[in-house]
Amino acid sequence: MLIQEEMIQKVKDKCKRDDTVVSAMMYGSFTKGEGDIYSDIEFYLFVNNAEYDVFDSLKWISTLDPVDLFFVNEYGTEVVVFNNMVRGEFHFLPEEQIEIIRSFKPTGVFPDTGSMFIYDSTNKLKPLLDYLGGAGPDRKTNENVNFAFNHYVNAWLMGINVLKRGEHARSLDVLSQVQKYTLQLMRVEGNTVERWLNGTKNLEEDLSQQSYKDYASITAKLNHKEILRAYQHSLTLIESLYLTLRHRYKVDLNERLIKKLYDYVNNS
């Protein structure tokens, strides 16, 4: 059994012993059959309304395993690095907010909602998890394709401009956005849109060998020549994606603008 699986069981056992937590669910890799020795453990735990204001989440988490680091990130998630180097994410909310689970539906596909169930004393959790099941959101839409193309052009132009200015580090940072939107379009073309919000996850398995090679061509080190090459290759890749996807979607981008982008970068 993996350390993470042992810790997940500890969470289940503690919830059963502790009346303070009335419902608990898990999300992430271990609910999708993808968990391994490098995976995080991630939970939503709902605390009795009357005890929520005095609830000590760090104390609760520390009973699972010794904690080396604990902090609240920019999204309000309580992040933990345990002594055994397992990373955990915990969301503690009052019981009255359990309906928040419904808001997860647009974020992706939940193939096995039963695996998300940890503990429940309210009889509210299972119906909410059942609601998450079934087909996920349709990512292959005109809106999403245009979002990716349009945001690509915006990021690409900004990245080229700051590169021309000599801001190599900033241009490399913007390149990550260029990669993100390119990858979304590659996933549309390759019909691997289940990971729309986390595009690089399992990329080595999701993309064809050629597509992965194409993606590698738009990465770079902090070097002017490499960064410029990555932007140039990304434009070639976007043109190819445009020529393919324009027959399936109503695309705002057009060949005239693509040519202007080529001229702009080649005159750098």
Would you mind describing this structure in some detail?
The protein has helices at 3-17, 57-62, 125-132, 142-165, 168-190, 203-206, 209-216, 224-245, 255-266; strands at residues 21-27, 41-47, 67-72, 78-82, 87-94, 117-120. The protein has a six-stranded mixed beta sheet, sandwiched between helices. It is 46% helix and 14% strand. Strand 4 (78-82) and strand 5 (87-94) form a beta hairpin. The model has no long low-confidence stretch (mean pLDDT 96). It has nine helices and six strands; from the N terminus they run αββαββββααααααα. It has 268 residues and is of the alpha+beta class. The longest helix has 24 residues, at 142-165. Helix 4 packs antiparallel against helix 5, helix 4 runs antiparallel to helix 8 (224-245) and helix 8 (224-245) packs antiparallel against helix 9. It is elongated and about 70 Å long. The chain starts with a helix and ends with a helix.
List the helices and strands and how they pair.
Layout: H1 3-17, E1 21-27, E2 41-47, H2 57-62, E3 67-72, E4 78-82, E5 87-94, E6 117-120, H3 125-132, H4 142-165, H5 168-190, H6 203-206, H7 209-216, H8 224-245, H9 255-266
Helix pairs in contact: 4-5, 4-8, 5-8, 8-9
